[in-house]
Design goal:
Elements: E1 5-8, H1 15-26, E2 29-32, H2 33-41, H3 45-52, H4 54-69, E3 74-77, H5 86-94, E4 97-102, H6 105-112, H7 126-144, E5 147-150, H8 156-172, E6 180-182, H9 184-192
Parallel strand pairs: 1-3, 1-4, 2-3, 4-5, 5-6
């Protein structure tokens, strides 16, 4: 069994969808940190943001990341802002393999366009907000990531194959080799070859 695998990236990058598929493929348990927060509080993320504000939500999120990263044998999809907390970044880096699912702003807008459950995108200009978030968070995602995967591939299976090949490559190096880039073109051509 693999050690813990933690997925990071902006909202709409595919962390939950890819995480579920990855956990199933590896025979591991899948956990979504946002769903865990909702289960603990009995309230939706949007409602927590509305009533308590983002700062309070981030404290709850940091507690959940601390607790979940201490578990064994899980694939964890983190919330897009989980890496804003320095302690959470440390837990992610030291307690498992972190995979940054990187997606273009256009892809994210396409995936989240009709989603009213994302409080940070309930704004006049969601594109501008995503660009701001990407600029702020990109350095933090790359700081914690052992593997970086672009999610602009045709389907989840392609992304999954890219992740599995990188996990195998890192296992062969004893986990060494942080910030491995994986080209989507290589993966697509491998699939069609």
């Amino acid at each position: 069994m693999h050690q813990n695998i933690f997925l990071v990236g902006l909202m709409g990058a595919g962390k939950t969808t890819v995480g579920r598929a990855l956990a199933k493929r590896l025979g591991m348990r899948f956990v979504d940190s946002d769903q865990e927060i909702e289960a603990r509080t009995g309230a939706s993320i949007a409602l927590i943001f509305e009533i308590e504000g983002e700062e309070s939500f981030r404290r709850r999120e940091a507690d959940v990341i601390r607790d979940l990263t201490a578990e064994k044998g899980i694939v964890l999809a983190t919330g897009g802002g989980a890496i804003l907390n320095a302690n959470s970044r440390d837990y992610l880096k030291t307690r498992g393999t972190v995979i940054y699912l990187r997606a273009s702003i256009n892809s994210i807008l396409h995936r989240t366009g009709n989603d009213r459950k994302r409080p940070l995108l309930q704004t006049e200009d969601p594109r501008k907000k995503l660009e701001e978030l990407a600029k702020q968070r990109e350095p933090l995602y790359t700081e914690v990531a052992s593997i970086i995967i672009d999610t602009g591939r045709p389907n989840v299976h392609s992304v999954l194959q890219g992740i599995l090949s990188q996990l195998d490559a890192n296992k062969g190096k004893g986990g060494a080799g942080r910030h491995k880039q994986h080209s989507p073109k290589k993966n697509i051509s491998q699939e069609t070859a």
